[in-house]
């Protein structure tokens, strides 16, 4: 079952521990880009990741809904909720585990968004179906922004047909 009965497309942005600085800015940027395409973003993350998002977007201009990471995974597992798209932000092995879980439990089109110093090495560890978006971005978000822009343009072009 999809998120809404009114055919509104939804995207889950899944955030783990916000150790790497670019995660918050890129998640907000992605939420903005999704909103521009008429897709409602939902942020699920750790407490720290959600607090950073709340502080960065206090007026909720980009993010209309945030949820606990584990509660969201439980809801998807129980078939209470699902999404059209899922973007899992990954900078370590636990991020890969979350993405693998999403590949197994969700029907969403899955994007593994890898960043940080070891993005390329982590990308090589992925053994489940997903689209990989990887860039060695730690402090400077621009390499990851460029990769996300490419993927979003491709997705927008496909969804219009």
Please render the helix and strand layout as text.
Layout: E1 10-15, H1 22-36, E2 40-45, H2 47-56, E3 65-68, H3 69-77, E4 85-90, H4 93-105, E5 109-114, H5 119-123, E6 131-134, H6 142-159
Parallel strand pairs: 1-2, 1-4, 2-3, 4-5, 5-6
Helix pairs in contact: 1-2, 1-6
Give the strand order, joined by hyphens, for the main sheet: 3-2-1-4-5-6
Measured by DSSP, the beta-strand proportion falls in 15-25%
> Helical segment tally?
6
Oligomeric state of the chains?
single chain
* N/C terminus separation: 23 Å
Q: Any idea what the radius of gyration is?
A: 14 Å
Helix and strand composition category:
alpha/beta
Fraction in helix: 40-55%
Task: Give the second-level CATH assignment, the architecture.
Answer: 3-Layer(aba) Sandwich
H/E order of the elements? Answer: EHEHEHEHEHEH
CATH hierarchy, class: Alpha Beta
Notes on the structure:
- The protein has 161 residues and is an alpha/beta fold.
- The protein has a single domain, classed as Rossmann fold (3-Layer(aba) Sandwich), CATH 3.40.50.
- The chain contains six helices and six strands.
- The protein has a six-stranded parallel beta sheet, sandwiched between helices.
- Strand 1 (10-15), helix 1 (22-36) and strand 2 (40-45) form a beta-alpha-beta unit.
- The longest helix has 18 residues, at 142-159.
- The chain is globular, with a radius of gyration of 14 Å.
- It starts with 9 loop residues before the first strand and ends with a helix.
- The model has no long low-confidence stretch (mean pLDDT 91).
């Amino acid at each position: 079952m999809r998120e809404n009965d009114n055919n509104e497309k939804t995207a889950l942005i899944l955030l783990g521990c916000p150790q790497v600085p670019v995660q918050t800015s890129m998640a907000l940027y992605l939420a903005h880009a999704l909103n521009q395409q008429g897709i409602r973003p939902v942020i699920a993350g750790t407490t720290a990741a959600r607090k950073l998002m709340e502080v960065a977007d206090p007026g909720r201009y980009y993010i209309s809904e945030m949820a606990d990471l584990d509660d969201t995974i439980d809801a998807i597992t129980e078939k209470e909720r699902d999404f059209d798209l899922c973007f899992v932000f990954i900078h370590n092995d636990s991020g890969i585990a979350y993405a693998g879980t999403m590949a197994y439990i969700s029907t969403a089109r899955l994007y593994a968004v890898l960043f940080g110093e070891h993005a390329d090495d982590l990308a090589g560890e992925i053994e489940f179906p997903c689209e990989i978006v990887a860039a060695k971005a730690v402090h400077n978000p621009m390499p990851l922004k460029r990769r996300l822009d490419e993927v979003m343009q491709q997705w927008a072009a496909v969804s219009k047909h």
